[in-house]
Structure formats: C-alpha cells, structure tokens
Specification:
Elements: H1 4-7, H2 12-30, H3 40-66, H4 87-99, E1 115-118, E2 123-127, E3 130-134, E4 141-144, E5 147-150, H5 151-165
Antiparallel strand pairs: 1-4, 2-3, 4-5
Length: 177
C-alpha cells in the first residue's frame, strides 16, 4: 500500500487537493451562524452543503488511510455498538447515512432520523434509543441516525489535518485557465 501514491493516475493528487479546498470553502459557509436562522429552503441548502463536505472529505480521508496517513483523532466521537471510531470512520459512516437514504445507518429499530442540526446552548435529550447530545455552545452538531459530528471539533479539524498530510500539488482553478 505504500506505493499507492505512485500507482495513482496523474490527475488524482490535484483532484484530492481540489476536494479539500472545496470542502474548506463549504465549511467556511457553514460556520456563518446566520445560516441556521433561515427558512426551510435555507435548511435544504445547509443539508446539501453538509453532504458535499462529507463526500469530499470522505474521498480524501479514505485515500489517506490507504496511503498509511490516516487521520485518526477520536476526541468527542461516540462509540457505536461498542466499536471505537476515529474521525475517518465517523465521516465515512455519516456520508453513507446521508447518501443512502434507506440505509439502516439512519435509524434505530423504532426511530429514523434524517439530518438534525443543533446549535446554541448545550443540551442532552433522549427519545427512546435516540440520544441528542450537543455538548458545546460554541459548535454545531450534525446528526444522521445514530451518528453525530461537530462542525469545528471534527470537520474543520479533520480538514486541517488532511492539508498537513497531503503532498503539495498545484491546483488549477477554472478562473486560471
């Protein structure tokens, strides 16, 4: 697996770097707290943006994991079914729950949950098997089914760690062509 980087197509390094940059721009938009005070149409844009972030980061994180450069912090990540997870696992599970609507990852035997977003003051509530645990007033929690992830503590931090692990490549933006 160490030679994975040498085996990849010529365009893959640029694609990975571009994906990180796109995810970073989307994360910057989500950190604008005014987004969470809007109407239902805005909620749909938040979900679409969040799913794009999951798709882009999952692609890069899986590449790094296969290249023995896994992003593996596990702070504030809840074990599911007594299985420890790190941020690479969590983003993968969240992506699968977000992108595969009939997936079991979106629910419990008696409850199904699409996207739930918690901001503001911390709260912890249980609805049967579902536990909504939003610990930090300075962060935003996103939940799909049984998985939850923090905007700053997980997604922004993972992006910073990804950037430190990816080799430098020149990315050509469409405006540069």
């Amino acid at each position: 697996m160490g030679d994975l980087v040498a085996q990849q197509p010529w365009w893959r390094p640029s694609e990975l770097r571009s994906g990180v940059q796109r995810a970073e721009r989307c994360l910057n938009k989500l950190q604008d707290t005014d987004l969470f005070k809007g109407d239902d149409a805005q909620a749909e844009m938040i979900e679409a943006t969040f799913i794009l972030i999951l798709i882009l980061l999952n692609d890069v994180l899986q590449h790094l994991a296969q290249s023995n450069r896994r992003v593996d912090f596990s702070d504030d990540i809840v074990e599911i079914d007594n299985r420890p997870m790190d941020v690479t696992d969590l983003i993968n599970k969240m992506r699968n729950a977000a992108c595969h609507i009939p997936s079991e990852a979106r629910g419990f035997p008696t409850i199904r949950l699409g996207l739930l977003v918690c901001t503001g003051k911390p709260r912890n509530k249980s609805y049967g098997e579902l536990v909504i645990d939003h610990k930090y007033g300075d962060d935003t929690t996103f939940m799909y089914g049984r998985y939850s992830i923090y905007l700053r503590r997980h997604l922004v931090r993972a992006t910073k760690e990804i950037k430190a692990r990816l080799p430098a490549v020149q990315v050509t933006e469409l405006g540069d062509l």
